[in-house]
């Protein structure tokens, strides 16, 4: 299959998907064809399903949940693609540069995938050298991966995928955490790979400026559905047809074109020349278009604010950094060197810089997370400080968003004002629909908004925001800008670290560049941007020499926003925030919701509009006219059709035959035929038999290395827990651990974990004829737990789980172990013998069940939550 893709790399038909525990589809009726050799850009608002769709392009990345529909890879059902083939054929690059790195050094990372395929050493050396030379990685080839900048790490991730010689490259917002220079280089490299090697590229992105010029197709998503599909020769039509949320994501040149035409700013427009085909999408095209226009009025209108230099705020610094120096342990060079900075009360200060320049380190020094090697950080007395970290998950503590938000209530004594503020902030950050969801399961942009809400609710006087716009779509980014201006207007001091130059230009008053450990060129935003050639906005690059003084699209269209804090209204108050003197902007709460019910453009075929006649581009389709219907509130526990997920009904019968028939026969064989003399042999047979369902379902279920490692860790934990209480033989914490294993991992792995843990633990407690019986009993406990609670067949409530666990241990484990005693100790089986045996074991069984229930009450909720995040 490798390198022999047909006309279509992927054909997706009627794909719908809902995550476990969700009654709403993340994807609904996705119909999409991706041609071989194409460069497809997937865009849309945060949480619209982009990442979920991308994960369906590589089977080992499939999310867990209910799935319907068909995915064909090169004409073959993607579930039939062997792991080895997909490992080579389909490369996947994550949003977080650290997520894809598995080894210590760069060269070992490049060789890792090839070694996993078992290739010859000479072939590996040749491929690694070839790839490293192509990517220009000679300078970092011998470095440790943890010494690399974010851009270098993402380059290593890309190279480690391409060294496998894939046919398809899937990338999930790969440049969202990169500085502008690294981002441009990375995207340019993707274009070369697509053009020169013919590799199919599918990439999701919020910022599409640099991707439009090299892409062949654009796919627009909203609320789990595909709303538009365009090929390259239809991009101009996209400008007039797309909805507002997509227009916000268009390149600066295109937004400038749209605004100037709509507002009638340009006085001389040649109707013949100014057609959709001439719509600019790049800086170069924007300059060409502007040269043909009369920009005299624009230049005159800029005179009033082009002389802007420094902020006119009072000299009342709340943050002072003096001679700050910091170097990491075992590092010979300082990352922060003699840095100086003062930030005034109520000021918004933006900090730019390349990946690895020390911006996040600088925030850690200001917040007190790390201490400087030399120098001082002075925070004005009485000012509380709050940090929004680059990884928003560090702020999450609860299983539901609303519970995380409610944790901030302890920061204020005014309950009524806090409740009022809570509702306002939830609306401002547009997280109403996320309140009952697990924050760890949200998209990147949604996580950012939830974390921002927590930071606002903290009532801190100083806010340190590390990449606050990362992962946000354009509409929410505009809302974030207004929120920041509002916070500044009510006296909050804000320091923003960001790679998004346009974002900083729109919301900051002053900005500085962190370079070589120092903050250089610090000054007013306009002066800073106009004096830079590279760390500046696209508008500056387009208008330089044509309409000097323009920094933002609003400048070009004469919609200047010189007053950074005036965007306020009287409809929102926030008494719980200290020093509150202004209200939140009135347009914040409506911008992101006004377009949520808008219809798809008429050129998209849709099964709800029978009169639609225009079609999507012929070689990349969004065929929503199929007669297959899907309930958006589908049952998440029902099984997916056989063409996507494994039909488990026949396998379940086989597993029950092994669990309920073959293993008891094996134990009987050991007791009756071998006379309990070969209990090690019987124990080995039990282990092998317990692994049969695991291996039988391995290829279909595609257990990941992560799941296997978690299973091993849970086995070790169960063994350790039993050994820890060896002085109290009636107390066996092992059962609680095995029950949790079954709940999280399923019945097959639950049985295997229980039987294996019991075998290993008996090494410490003594092996004997009872070992196979105990293995079988504990395995059944894990299996029944998985059968009842895995994939939420029953509600996973700690009280219900504790009660069920107690019954399993008392009836199942105690019953089987007592049966072993009855058969191996008693000379004859009689009613009296049965009663005596079970009564003698009753105290131990009761104690065992009570201990199991107590432990499940104490640890089940936390363990299931944490393990669930891993697997």
Topology:
Elements: E1 8-19, E2 27-35, E3 39-43, H1 50-55, E4 65-73, E5 76-77, H2 83-89, E6 90-93, H3 106-116, H4 121-134, H5 150-162, E7 168-172, H6 180-197, E8 200-204, H7 209-212, E9 217-222, E10 225-231, H8 235-241, H9 244-247, H10 252-263, H11 283-291, H12 296-302, E11 317-326, E12 336-344, E13 348-352, H13 359-367, E14 374-379, E15 385-388, H14 401-406, H15 415-428, H16 444-457, E16 462-466, H17 474-489, E17 493-497, H18 501-507, E18 510-515, E19 518-524, H19 525-531, H20 538-543, H21 553-556, H22 588-591, H23 649-673, H24 679-696, H25 698-701, H26 705-724, H27 734-745, H28 747-765, H29 770-789, H30 798-825, H31 831-870
Parallel strand pairs: 3-8, 3-9, 6-7, 7-8, 13-17, 13-18, 15-16, 16-17
Antiparallel strand pairs: 1-2, 1-4, 4-5, 9-10, 11-12, 11-14, 18-19
Helix pairs in contact: 3-4, 3-5, 10-11, 15-16, 23-24, 23-29, 24-28, 24-29, 26-27, 26-28, 27-28, 27-29, 27-31, 28-29, 29-30, 30-31
Mean pLDDT: 77
Unreliable stretches: 266-277, 303-310, 560-576, 578-650
Number of strands: 19
Structural class label: alpha/beta
| Large-scale geometry | globular
Query: What is the first-to-last residue Cα distance?
Result: 30 Å
Q: How much β-strand is present in the residues?
A: 5-15%
Which sheet architecture does the biggest sheet show? 6 strands, mixed
Count of helical segments? 31
Could you give the order of strands across the largest sheet? 6-7-8-3-9-10
- Rg over alpha carbons: 31 Å
- Which percent range fits the helix content? 40-55%
């Amino acid at each position: 299959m490798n390198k022999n893709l047909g006309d279509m790399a992927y054909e997706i038909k009627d794909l719908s998907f809902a995550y476990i525990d969700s009654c709403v589809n993340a994807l609904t009726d996705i119909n999409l064809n991706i041609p071989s050799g194409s460069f497809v850009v997937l865009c849309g608002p945060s949480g619209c399903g982009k990442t979920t769709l991308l994960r369906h392009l590589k089977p080992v990345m499939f999310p867990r949940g209910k799935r319907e529909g068909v995915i064909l890879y090169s004409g073959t059902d993607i579930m039939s693609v062997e792991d080895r083939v997909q490992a080579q054929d389909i490369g996947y690059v994550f949003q977080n540069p650290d997520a894809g790195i598995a080894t210590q050094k760069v060269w070992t990372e490049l060789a890792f995938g090839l070694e996993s395929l078992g290739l010859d050493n000479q072939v590996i050396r040749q491929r690694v050298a070839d790839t490293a030379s192509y990517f220009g990685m000679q300078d970092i080839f011998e470095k440790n991966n943890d010494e690399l900048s974010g851009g270098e790490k993402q380059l290593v991730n890309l190279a480690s995928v391409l060294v496998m010689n894939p046919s398809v490259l899937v990338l999930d917002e790969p440049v969202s955490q990169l500085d502008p220079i690294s981002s441009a280089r990375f995207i340019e490299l993707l274009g070369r790979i697509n053009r020169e090697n013919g590799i199919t590229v599918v990439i999701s992105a919020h910022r599409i400026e640099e991707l439009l010029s090299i892409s062949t197709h654009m796919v627009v998503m909203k609320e789990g559905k595909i709303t538009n599909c365009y090929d390259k020769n239809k991009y101009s039509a996209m400008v007039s047809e797309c909805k507002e949320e997509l227009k916000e994501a268009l390149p600066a040149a295109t937004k400038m074109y749209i605004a100037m035409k709509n507002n009638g700013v340009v006085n001389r427009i040649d109707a013949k020349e100014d057609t959709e085909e001439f719509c600019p999408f790049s800086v170069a095209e924007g300059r060409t278009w502007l040269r043909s226009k009369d920009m005299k009025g624009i230049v005159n209108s800029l005179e009033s604010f082009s002389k802007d230099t420094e902020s006119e705020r009072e000299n009342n610094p709340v943050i002072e950094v003096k001679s700050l120096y910091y170097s990491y342990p075992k590092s010979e060079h300082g990352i922060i060197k003699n840095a100086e900075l003062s930030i005034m009360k109520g000021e918004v200060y933006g900090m730019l810089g390349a990946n690895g320049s020390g911006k996040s380190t600088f925030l850690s020094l200001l917040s007190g997370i790390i201490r400087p090697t030399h120098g001082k950080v002075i925070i004005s007395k009485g000012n509380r400080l709050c940090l929004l970290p680059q990884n928003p998950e560090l702020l999450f503590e609860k299983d539901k968003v609303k519970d995380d938000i409610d944790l901030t209530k302890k920061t204020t004594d005014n309950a009524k004002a806090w409740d009022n503020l809570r509702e306002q902030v939830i609306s401002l950050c547009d997280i109403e629909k996320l309140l009952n969801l697990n924050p760890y399961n949200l998209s990147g942009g949604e996580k950012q908004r939830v974390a921002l809400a927590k930071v606002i609710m903290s009532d801190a006087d100083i806010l340190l925001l590390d990449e606050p716009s990362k992962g946000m779509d354009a509409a929410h980014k505009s809302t974030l800008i207004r929120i920041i201006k509002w916070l500044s207007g009510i006296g909050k001091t804000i320091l923003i670290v960001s790679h998004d130059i346009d974002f900083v230009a729109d919301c900051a008053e002053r900005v500085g560049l962190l370079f070589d450990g120092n903050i250089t060129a610090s000054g007013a935003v306009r002066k800073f941007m106009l004096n830079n050639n590279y760390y500046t906005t696209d508008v500056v690059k387009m208008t330089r020499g044509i309409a000097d003084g323009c920094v933002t699209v609003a400048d070009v269209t004469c919609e200047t926003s010189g007053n950074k804090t005036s965007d306020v209204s009287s409809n929102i108050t926030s008494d719980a925030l200290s020093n509150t003197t202004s209200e939140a902007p009135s347009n914040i709460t409506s911008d992101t919701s006004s377009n949520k019910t808008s219809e798809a453009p008429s050129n998209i075929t849709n099964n709800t509009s029978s009169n639609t006649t225009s079609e999507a581009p012929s070689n990349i389709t969004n065929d929503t006219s199929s007669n297959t219907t899907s309930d958006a509130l589908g049952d998440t526990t029902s099984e997916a059709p056989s063409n996507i997920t494994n039909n488990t009904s026949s396998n379940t019968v086989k597993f029950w035959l092994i669990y309920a028939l073959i293993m008891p026969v094996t134990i009987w064989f050991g007791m009756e035929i071998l006379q309990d003399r070969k209990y090690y042999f019987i124990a080995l047979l039990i282990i092998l038999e317990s692994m049969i369902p695991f291996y039988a379902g391995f290829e279909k279920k595609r257990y990941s290395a992560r799941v296997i490692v978690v299973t091993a860790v849970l086995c070790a934990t169960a063994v350790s827990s039993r050994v820890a209480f060896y002085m109290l033989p009636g107390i066996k914490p092992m059962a609680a651990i095995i029950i949790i294993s079954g709940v999280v991992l399923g019945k097959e792995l639950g049985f295997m974990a229980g039987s294996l843990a019991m075998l290993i633990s008996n090494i410490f407690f003594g092996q004997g004829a009872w070992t196979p019986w105990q293995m079988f009993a504990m395995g059944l406990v894990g299996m029944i737990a998985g059968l009842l609670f895995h994939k939420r067949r029953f509600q996973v409530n700690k009280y219900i789980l504790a009660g069920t666990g107690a019954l399993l241990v008392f009836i199942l484990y105690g019953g089987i172990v007592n049966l072993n005693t009855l058969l191996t100790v008693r000379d004859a089986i009689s009613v009296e013998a049965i009663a005596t045996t079970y009564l003698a074991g009753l105290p131990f069984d009761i104690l065992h069940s009570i201990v199991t229930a107590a432990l499940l009450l104490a640890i089940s909720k936390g363990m299931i939550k944490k393990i669930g995040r891993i697997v």
